[in-house]
Write a structure and sequence with these properties.
CATH class: Alpha Beta
CATH architecture: Alpha-Beta Complex
Distance between the termini: 46 Å
Number of helices: 3
Structural class: alpha+beta
Helix content: 10-25%
Shape: globular
Number of domains: 1
Order of helices and strands: EEEEHEEEEHH
Number of strands: 8
Radius of gyration: 15 Å
CATH topology: Nucleoside Triphosphate Pyrophosphohydrolase
């Protein structure tokens, strides 16, 4: 009997600093609940919510700021399975199917990781592309490379 996998609909934000296009720096944050897990902000899409609405809500919840400009959207949904040691954390899902957006923080944007009761992240930084992939959690690197390379090819980065 075949087991049907379940994927959580999700949005993810590739955030460029407000210095873009003069400097290309990517926002990454260190998760509060997993050691050495750096990633882009992301989160579930609620029922009846569009991916764009979820993007603005999730950014406000996770980094306390949704003062952004959307530069682009990855054309496909990207699906991945959670690593074995992470399964169960997102029960009943086996992984996520994500819609990626490329966004730029507006000039006066203020990030506040403590904006909500239980912070998703404990710290954040801006990194250049060369530093990004080695720093993020291993199972996200392939997807991040694919998404960023698409935005580069489209002339958005």
């Amino acid at each position: 009997m075949e087991c049907i996998k379940r994927y959580r609909p999700n949005v993810a934000a590739v955030i460029l600093s407000s210095k873009y296009p003069d400097r290309c720096e990517f926002f990454i944050a260190h998760r509060s609940d997993i050691r050495n897990a750096w990633q882009f902000p992301q989160g579930g899409i609620d029922e009846g919510e569009s991916p764009q609405e979820a993007l603005y809500r999730e950014l406000l919840e996770e980094i306390g700021c949704n003062d952004i400009e959307i530069l682009g959207e990855f054309p496909e949904w990207i699906t991945y399975d959670f690593p074995a040691k992470a399964k169960g954390k997102q029960y009943p899902f086996d992984g996520q199917t994500q819609k990626y957006f490329l966004v730029r923080l507006k000039d006066e944007s203020k990030i506040d990781l403590e904006a909500f009761e239980i912070p998703e992240f404990k710290e954040y930084t801006f990194v250049e592309y060369e530093e990004l992939l080695p720093k993020v959690t291993y199972f996200k690197r392939k997807v991040y490379r694919r998404v960023i390379n698409y935005f580069i090819k489209e002339g958005l980065i």
